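Build the 3D complex.
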Amino acid sequence: MASSVLLVIVLAVAASVSSAQKVAWESRKRMLATFAADGMLAELMTLDYFDIRDHDGDEEDIGEMETIDGEDYPDTFWALGRDITVTDTTVTDVDTGIIVAGIDVRVAVFDQTKDLSILTAFVAEPAP
Amino acid sequence: MKKLASDTPRARRGMTVVELLIAMTITVMIGLAMATVLTSVSRGLSSTNSERSALQRANVLSHRLTSYTQSALAIIEADDRGLAMWLHDESGEGRVNLLELRVFWVDEVGQTISIERIVFPVAWTLEEIDTANTLVTSIEDPFVVIAQQRALGYTETSLLIDGMAAVNFIPAESTAAESSRFAMIVDLPIETNHIEEILLSVALPMHQEPQ
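Done.
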């Protein structure tokens, strides 16, 4: 009886510690994912409109991320991968009704199970 | 009449010394085990808090730097001393003047990044300011230039961030001035003897190489 009570107590403590560690790890991954997504989007915004399109479908495996210029991400980002999607779209100004053509640039950073951070930016097509 | 068990007085039996010692030993062992668990949990929490704090500092650095780089024209120098940035082209000449210069100093000893800019005396006239607002040529070291202005009392420094062990800037092109992108590797001290490396991308969407 006493052993059972003791076992239950130990298991409860271990479960709560494990749960807290898991939450902390997830939180850390999400922050790192935000850095990576924000960084790639900022890099893409320095490119010419038509050069951004060339990155549609780019995907970096988990642990293999690098900057657009080929600089490897440090080991801190070992659990993260990233992909880029560029899609044609239009945006209509509500007040004037003017339609602006451009591209939606979407950067998603993921781990083995889910997307952790997704950032999207609209880039208007330059005037001819 | 049958005697019920409850009618029979119970034999009172105490604990032997051996039983007492065993019980005390078990209690002490359980107590030690719990203390060990609590200590480990406490250390783990402390480490987690340190990591979270370090990442938050990196996040703050990223946002504060972006507020400059979003509109900056070029980073004219980047080395272990820090960054020298051409923030805007007020004169419209396509060249860097003193008032358009911002220097981000990296202090690895104090673990800080601070930003220094030129501020001429308020009492000066526009002509005096124009005269003093000289060009920073490409052959001059912008860090030395701003240090000279500091010696004259014409600069102002503010803290950008603290808690950074080291910062390394890697330009995309062969020179800083040509680069519209930099990889910034930041070393974050987590606890004693533990450093975490973070990569932040520094991008200049308005990039323009100074003449």
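Strands of chain B lie at 74-79, 82-86, 101-107, 112-118, 155-162, 166-171, 181-191, 194-203.
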